[in-house]
């Protein structure tokens, strides 16, 4: 194939790939109020709230006192009408509208709202996944959440395109909160981790993995995460999470680098980030080579060292451009580096979507960037004299957008 043909084949293969979105905060309609969707939820996403306050001089409390629709109206006015919406988060809203067949040039927000009012949530879920080219998504499922927990205990049957991941943040980061809850649910646990505590936590984790049919366990961690560490978190990882991951044969996913609430007035929009310790990841993976780890890190400055670690540790799967890295310029840089250092053995992206319709823009934008980088690499490959075929390109793209993940976790 010549260069133009290669670029066309790669573009088509990436556009047509069915994605497994391995980390989201989405829920299907069966989860009721936990499912966030529609234009008002999209406009009040924390990325846009933080951006809007770059322009707003109103007190924070006055903003939070507004209704959801009033907040959306304000953000629409400030970020879309009074200034051109060129940020990635703003452009994403417009890509979403266009993807749904709406006229993104329409300035009247109420006209867009009317479309969403007409939608049946259960059908809309599948429509959005189909538009985004997403075959399945992995949720973030928290047994410590007072709304979500009873749904699982009631035997909820979610849309089969929504898979579960057991989130263990409360247990690992907020033990003072988790301990009394576990005790109240009948687990024999103690604040100082004595007695039967470790065995009971292992029982708790195993029960919830089975209840959810969780594909992996996951946690977000601060930049100062280290391993090994004789803290409560360190002991819980070593004596509970890792043994259960080993026994159940599922990975432990770590998302490292978030600094919570650097501006509490912004609530969920107030989190920040910092450089973290890749050596901790190396020690964790090396000490537990029979356990699989999925890792993404928040700081751009961590990405090179994380790639080097993955070259040395085959039980480490690097995935996605998380949160503040989910911008085209950084996705391009990081994807190119990963392909150059790790070949095709990575997961280039996950959406981290919290609002259903974000799947449309996040995957449309990421496909474009990843496809451009991948096409360049195949052109470079062909220049060596190695003959690349369309079948091979489509195989590789399928791996990047889902196959690598399913093989890593032991699925089909």
For the structure shown, list the relevant keywords.
single chain; TIM Barrel
Structural write-up:
The chain has one domain (3-36, 139-408): Metal-dependent hydrolases (TIM Barrel). It has 412 residues and is of the alpha/beta class. It is globular, with a radius of gyration of 22 Å. Helix content is 51%, strand content 8%. The strands form 3 sheets. It has a 5-stranded parallel β-sheet. Strands 1-2-3 form a 3-stranded parallel β-sheet. The model has no long low-confidence stretch (mean pLDDT 97).
Average pLDDT rating: 97
Fourth CATH level, the homologous superfamily:
Metal-dependent hydrolases
CATH class category name: Alpha Beta
Number of strand elements: 10
Q: Approximately how much helix is present in the residues?
A: 40-55%
Distance between the termini: 31 Å
Radius of gyration: 22 Å
Widest sheet, order of strands: 4-5-6-9-10
Q: What is the helix tally?
A: 18
Strand content: 5-15%
CATH topology: TIM Barrel
Largest β-sheet summary: 5 strands, parallel
Element-by-element helix/strand order: HEHHHHHHHEHEEHHHEHEEEHEHEHHH
Shape: globular
């Amino acid at each position: 194939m010549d260069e133009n043909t290669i670029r066309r084949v790669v573009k088509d293969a990436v556009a047509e790939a069915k994605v497994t979105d391995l980390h989201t905060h989405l829920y299907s309609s069966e989860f009721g109020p936990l499912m966030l969707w529609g234009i008002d939820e999209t406009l009040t996403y924390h990325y846009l709230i933080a951006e809007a306050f770059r322009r707003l001089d109103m007190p924070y409390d006055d903003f939070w006192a507004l209704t959801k629709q009033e907040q959306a109206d304000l953000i629409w006015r400030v970020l879309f009408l009074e200034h051109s919406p060129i940020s990635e988060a703003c452009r994403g809203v417009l890509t979403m509208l266009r993807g749904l067949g709406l006229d993104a040039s329409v300035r009247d927000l109420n006209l867009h709202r009317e479309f969403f009012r007409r939608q049946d949530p259960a059908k809309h879920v599948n429509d959005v996944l189909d538009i985004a080219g997403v075959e399945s998504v992995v949720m973030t499922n928290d047994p410590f959440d007072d709304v979500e927990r009873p749904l699982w205990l009631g035997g909820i049957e979610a849309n089969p395109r929504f898979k579960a991941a057991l989130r263990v943040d409360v247990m690992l980061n907020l033990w003072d909160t988790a301990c009394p809850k576990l005790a109240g649910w009948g687990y024999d646990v103690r604040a100082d981790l004595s007695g039967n505590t470790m065995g009971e936590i292992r029982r708790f984790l195993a029960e919830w993995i089975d209840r959810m049919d969780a594909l992996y366990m996951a946690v977000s961690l601060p930049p100062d995460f280290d391993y090994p560490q004789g803290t409560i978190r360190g002991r819980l990882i070593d004596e509970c999470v890792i043994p259960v991951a080993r026994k159940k044969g599922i990975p432990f996913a770590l998302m490292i680098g978030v600094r919570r609430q650097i501006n509490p007035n912004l609530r969920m929009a107030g989190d920040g980030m910092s450089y973290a310790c890749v050596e901790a990841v190396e020690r964790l993976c090396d000490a537990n080579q029979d356990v699989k780890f999925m890792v993404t890190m928040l700081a751009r400055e961590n990405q090179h060292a994380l790639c080097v670690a993955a070259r040395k540790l085959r039980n480490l799967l690097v995935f996605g451009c998380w949160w503040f890295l989910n911008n085209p310029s950084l996705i391009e840089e990081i994807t190119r580096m990963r392909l150059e250092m790790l070949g095709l053995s990575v997961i280039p992206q996950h959406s981290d979507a919290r609002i259903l319709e974000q799947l449309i823009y996040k995957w449309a934008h990421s496909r474009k960037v990843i496809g451009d980088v991948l096409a360049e690499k195949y052109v470079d490959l062909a220049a060596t004299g190695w003959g690349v075929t369309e079948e091979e390109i489509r195989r590789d793209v399928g791996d990047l957008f889902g196959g690598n993940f399913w093989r890593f976790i032991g699925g089909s």
